[in-house]
């Protein structure tokens, strides 16, 4: 008996008279006399998927190594916001995309309000329970996470994993024409997402509960090119409202005029206004976060065994809350600075609370980056060159006041 395994697909005599044959992900065995010949059709698809993986921004996944450890919500914080989002996603689960409305949600909030922590917490939870289809965490200035160049490939790759029925279809498309990965954004959306869905489901309407459906895009305002932010909004909304794909999108972003303009000029979103949640600062949640963080420092840092309680004092935490204005990014940076294993936490805390120094260089860098993108250069010079270092950032206005699909979180939460 002779056994042959062919990695390439030769002419198959038993299919010569057949037409319109599509074979995906299988091994065919042709018995010819005393020979068993295996035809491995999946090879081409796998080659395409390998090329797709090379084109993805794996750093932008919610569980990427580059982002470890990622920011997460403390279990006792942001409960109302998380509840609102979960209620929205549950309502979409059994809804046909043909009757879909509000399948796009915007979570808007100022810098440091905890948007990324919320997106991360939801990504992890939805990733475990089979709701998350894909994620992309933008980061301004990062090679693959900062622009649109790898965005579609990254989403398509994750969809191929979470929805296996489209995997080989995507792989074969790339195998036939690898240049698709370098074609325009609209072509990539069509060939790598729309066409595989249409082929897999043959135009039959399906509901979201049949597979993972939620795509989380964090920090859309962090995309380096403003025009690309608009492009992403247009084509993702087209997936839902033009092509009726059973998907939904959760975007996080700072509220700014550009995002408002994108919504107003987007023909799909004008007819289907996105569900918008405004994320305000939260003194209560920030207090819980600080209290828990200092407790952990006291429990794990070897120096703290000799420090008498209470540490920090109620007055010191009150000062930190005042300095933070209820923003998580300040509290998070303080805890990271104070809890450095190579430093003395009590000395570090005293340094943070002093008026003479600004030890939070990481926070300074963030705000300098934000200011560097502003068109008002005079404001930038005042903010970065002020010797007192007390220049306040201008308040970020709400640009999403109109519309009925809005939820605003109380500042007293």
From TrEMBL:
Q: Record's Pfam families?
A: NPHP3_N
Keyword line: Repeat
Q: Does Ligase appear among the keywords?
A: no
Domain NACHT, by residue range, is 103-256
Which PROSITE patterns does the UniProt entry name for this protein?
Answer: NACHT
Signal peptide per UniProt:
none
Gene3D superfamilies in the cross-refs: P-loop containing nucleotide triphosphate hydrolases
What is the protein name given in its UniProt record?
NACHT domain-containing protein
Q: PANTHER family, per this entry? A: AMELOGENIN, FUNGAL STAND N-TERMINAL GOODBYE DOMAIN-CONTAINING PROTEIN-RELATED
Q: Could you tell me which residues belong to the region Disordered?
A: 389-413
Superkingdom assignment: Eukaryota
């Amino acid at each position: 008996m002779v056994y042959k395994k062919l990695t390439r697909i030769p002419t198959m005599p038993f299919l010569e008279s057949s037409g319109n044959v599509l074979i995906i992900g299988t091994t065919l065995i042709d018995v010819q006399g005393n020979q068993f010949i295996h035809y491995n059709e999946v090879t081409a698809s796998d080659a395409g998927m390998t090329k797709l993986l090379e084109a993805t921004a794996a750093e932008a996944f919610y569980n990427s190594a580059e982002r470890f450890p990622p920011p997460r919500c403390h279990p006792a914080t942001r409960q109302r916001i998380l509840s609102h989002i979960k209620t929205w996603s549950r309502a979409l689960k059994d809804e046909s995309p043909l009757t879909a409305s509000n399948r796009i949600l915007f979570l808007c909030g100022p810098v440091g309000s905890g948007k990324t922590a919320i997106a991360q917490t939801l990504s992890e939870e939805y990733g475990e329970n089979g709701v998350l289809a894909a994620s992309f965490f933008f980061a301004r200035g990062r090679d693959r996470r900062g622009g649109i160049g790898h965005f579609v490939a990254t989403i398509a790759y994750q969809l191929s994993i979470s929805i296996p029925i489209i995997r080989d279809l995507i792989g074969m498309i790339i195998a036939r024409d690898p240049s698709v990965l370098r074609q325009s954004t609209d072509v990539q959306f069509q060939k790598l997402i729309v066409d595989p869905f249409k082929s897999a489901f043959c135009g039959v309407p399906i509901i979201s509960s049949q597979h993972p459906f939620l795509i989380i895009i964090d920090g859309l305002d962090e995309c380096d090119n403003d025009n690309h932010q608009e492009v992403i909004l247009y084509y993702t909304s087209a997936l839902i409202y033009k092509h009726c794909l059973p998907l939904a999108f959760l975007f996080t972003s700072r509220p700014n005029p550009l995002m408002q303009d994108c919504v107003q000029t987007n023909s799909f979103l004008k007819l289907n206004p996105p569900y918008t949640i405004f994320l305000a600062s939260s003194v209560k949640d920030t207090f819980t976060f600080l209290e828990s963080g200092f407790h952990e420092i006291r429990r794990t840092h070897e120096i703290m065994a000799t420090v008498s309680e209470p540490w920090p004092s109620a007055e010191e935490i009150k000062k930190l809350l005042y300095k933070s204005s209820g923003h998580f990014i300040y509290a998070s940076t303080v805890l990271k600075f104070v809890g450095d294993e190579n430093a003395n936490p009590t000395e570090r805390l005293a340094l943070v609370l002093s008026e003479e120094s600004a030890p939070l260089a990481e926070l300074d860098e963030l705000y300098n980056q934000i200011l560097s993108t502003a068109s008002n250069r005079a404001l930038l010079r005042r903010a970065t060159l002020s010797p007192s270092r007390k220049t306040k950032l201008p308040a970020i206005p709400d640009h999403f006041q109109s519309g009925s699909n809005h939820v605003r979180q109380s500042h007293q939460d």
